[in-house]
Design brief:
single chain, 312 residues, alpha+beta, Multidrug-efflux Transporter Regulator, Chain: A, Domain 2, Multidrug-efflux Transporter 1 Regulator Bmrr, Chain A, 2 domains, nine-stranded antiparallel β-sheet, three-stranded antiparallel β-sheet, 8 helices, 37% helix, elongated
Amino acid sequence: MPMSKKMLTTGAFAKLCKTTKETIFHYDREDILKPRYEASNGYRYYSLDQLWDFESIATLKDIGSSLKEIRYYLKDTEPERLLSFLREKDSALDEEIERLLQRKLFLSDMLSSLQELSQNSLDTITFARQEETLLEVWPIDPSAAKSARAVWETFYDYLGYYREQNKMARWPFGTILEWEAQGSADTEQGPAQGASVARYFFGLAEKASRGGKNASGPSLPLSLLVQRAGLYAILFHKGSHAEQERALASFLSFLEERGLSHDEQIFCSDMLVYARQRDETAYVNKYSVRLCENADTFALAGKTFPLDAGQE
């Protein structure tokens, strides 16, 4: 039949559209994609230009349009109504793209944190150079810093800020600590006695903040902080909160005993935040401090030492 040379069978048209014959039949029944020609023997035939009709239907369906809406759109000939409908769908698609981009960023952060953990040994002090990083920081009220409940309430507010914008804090994120010492490492007490105090929550600054704009709003405490480039001492440790405190004390004592001065800020990240095990000993924290560099520290880059070397 001459018509068959110009038209596609249902199966051939479905293959061109990368869908199933049943889908094409369903769209026919729903009166949104009728065959261009139906032979006396019941065979349906579609034209090549109907591929664009199918793509329109598939696109609208993918962004949440019902078949009823699509049928209305395809049959409506009023330009203003069509424009209004398409603008609404364009806006919805922008929102969906942003949602998917946030999911992709979250997945990328999961991969980054777990890959970093897999590439480093626990209870080993590593000296490595780090590039400058711009962070978004959320302060912890000094009057609340020693109360676990108050710190968690601040953390809730910090996460809530991002959730209101349908975002998450970017990796690397965690807590900036300071150590309040009550002794020194050269006493018979062993590691320096004291406790860590949380000062800020931090996360990677978004690209929009990197042009120097202040990240905080009129009533928000969020601000920008530069984590300076330089040589960092880094420790990964697994254990409960009490064990983490002891490991941090040993880490700082190791540096003190070797005369390695460093910034007061201690950057702490929970490396299992994306894969939390229901076990109080499941915390794997990364601690990093920037060293004050001099001729003695130059040769440390790339070297590693066991944590217990500071307790010998």
